[in-house]
């Protein structure tokens, strides 16, 4: 009975995992295709901005962490407190999020006369 319950749970979890992809069909007109090229340029600028944003956030975090570490070291009056300073150093993470860039691109693509088909598998 327990094996059956585990198997059913696994099947339900796998059934809940769906992927979404988009199929794009180019516009028929030359003007529509030129419009789509502009959409692509806008998407690339958006992606570049996102890369810069993530890098800037990481650098700012690293700068704050370095300043905090120096303040901790300066305030440490014994070896144990000095060791604690390293333990408080944060990890600085920031990742690019292209979701908005891709959503805007698909909307622009459709406005240019292209067809965007959402496929959930």
Notable traits:
single chain, 121 residues, mainly alpha, two-stranded antiparallel ribbon, 4 helices
Give a written overview of the molecule:
By secondary structure, this protein is mostly helical. 69% of the residues lie in helices and 10% in strands. The protein contains four helices and two strands, in the order H-E-H-H-H-E. A two-stranded antiparallel sheet has the order 1-2. Helix 2 (30-75) packs antiparallel against helix 4 (99-111). The model has no long low-confidence stretch (mean pLDDT 89).
Q: In which order are the strands of the major sheet placed?
A: 1-2
Low-pLDDT stretches are none
The proportion of strand residues reads 5-15%
Shape: elongated
Number of helical segments?
4
Would you tell me the structural class of the helices and strands? mainly alpha
Largest sheet: 2 strands, antiparallel
The portion of residues assigned to helices is: 55-70%
Please give the alpha-carbon distance between the first and last residues. Answer: 31 Å
Topology:
Layout: H1 2-16, E1 20-25, H2 30-75, H3 79-87, H4 99-111, E2 115-120
Antiparallel strand pairs: 1-2
Helix pairs in contact: 2-4
What is this structure, in a nutshell?
By secondary structure, the protein is mainly alpha-helical. The chain has four helices and two strands.
């Amino acid at each position: 009975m327990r094996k059956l319950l585990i198997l059913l749970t696994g099947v339900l979890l796998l059934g809940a995992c769906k992927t979404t992809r988009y199929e794009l069909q180019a516009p028929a007109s030359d003007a529509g295709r030129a419009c789509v090229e502009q959409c692509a340029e806008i998407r690339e600028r958006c992606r570049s901005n996102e890369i810069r944003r993530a890098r800037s956030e990481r650098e700012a975090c690293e700068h704050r962490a370095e300043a905090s570490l120096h303040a901790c070291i300066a305030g440490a009056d014994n070896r144990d407190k000095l060791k604690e300073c390293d333990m408080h150093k944060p990890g600085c993470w920031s990742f690019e999020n292209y979701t908005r860039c891709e959503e805007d691109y698909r909307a622009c693509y459709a406005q240019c006369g292209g067809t965007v088909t959402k496929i959930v598998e």
